[in-house]
Specification:
The chain is mainly beta. The longest helix has 13 residues. The protein is globular, with a radius of gyration of 18 Å. The chain has one domain. The strands form two sheets. Strands 3, 4, 6, 7, 9, 10, 12, 15, 16, 17 and 18 form an eleven-stranded mixed sheet that branches. A seven-stranded mixed sheet has the order 2-1-5-8-11-13-14, with no helix packed on it.
């Protein structure tokens, strides 16, 4: 299966963030919320779009591609509504998903998908790529679960690339489900879930912080990365929230999103 989805959010004449373009195909189904949401932290309305995995996917051989553009001054919250289950297909070969976002001057994107469960024998590659204007804001979250209950996971390779202006901020790759890595004592310390969030926001932390199985690390060219390890997805997201609370913009980053 091959599927593509495209989403564009811009400001209208009254300064509201509105969906200007939306095309999607199952399983990448985009569902905008009626009306905009006004965040407590600022005067600009925020468009809210839910990403729904409308059929079982990705399976081996699937190729999924999501493109998102946020116009100048606009704000978008793009969030998942359920977990993604990565499964093997009937034919040999893995699956691939790509998310490519562009955020213009003064724009803001919050990309908060549901967690991804990598099942046995699955082979999946995922890429998130963001191109930001110099004063654009973005946060992208990734919660990866290694297998279902009492199940060895398949293999997963994820990469995150974030560029602001012409400066690279994040270049990160994770390889999970690799038997050679599992033999290392430092491989996830036995945790079943790893959660990360890359944050390019209004302020940057001046020094790293850490707690029980979580950390927040400032990046050399701006922004920060939060990481958490846990035995389950609920605990991982709780620990990720604990890490984000230590960010200078922690109150805004940890507010409830509905």
């Amino acid at each position: 299966m091959k599927a593509r989805a495209h989403l564009t959010v811009e400001l209208d004449s009254r300064g509201r963030s509105v969906v200007r373009e939306l095309t999607s195909a199952s399983p990448l189904t985009l569902m905008p919320r009626r009306g905009a949401v006004r965040p407590a932290a600022g005067p600009t309305d925020r468009a809210v779009v839910h990403l729904v995995n409308s059929v079982t996917s990705p399976l081996g051989g699937d190729e999924l591609d999501l493109r998102v553009r946020v116009g100048a001054g606009a704000r978008l919250l793009l969030r998942g509504v359920a977990a993604t289950l990565v499964l093997p297909g009937h034919r040999r070969g893995g699956s691939r998903s790509t998310v490519h976002v562009e955020v213009a001057e003064g724009g803001t994107l919050e990309y908060l998908p549901g967690h991804t469960v990598v099942t046995a024998r699955a082979e999946h590659e995922a890429e998130f790529r963001a191109e930001l204007a110099r004063d654009a804001l973005v946060r992208c979250r990734e919660v990866l679960v290694l297998g279902r209950s009492n199940e060895r996971p398949g293999s997963l390779r994820t990469s995150t690339h974030v560029t602001r202006g012409e400066a690279p901020l994040v270049r990160q790759t994770l390889e999970l489900g690799n038997s050679r890595l599992e033999a290392s004592a430092g491989y996830l310390a036995g945790a079943r879930v790893v959660a990360t969030e890359s944050v390019v926001w209004k302020n940057d932390p001046v020094a790293p912080t850490s707690g029980e199985w979580w950390s927040l690390t400032p990046l050399a060219a701006g922004g920060a990365t939060a990481t958490a390890l846990a035995p389950d997805a609920v605990t991982a997201q709780y620990r990720l929230t604990e890490a984000l609370r230590t960010h200078p913009d922690g109150k805004e980053l940890t507010e409830e999103h509905w």
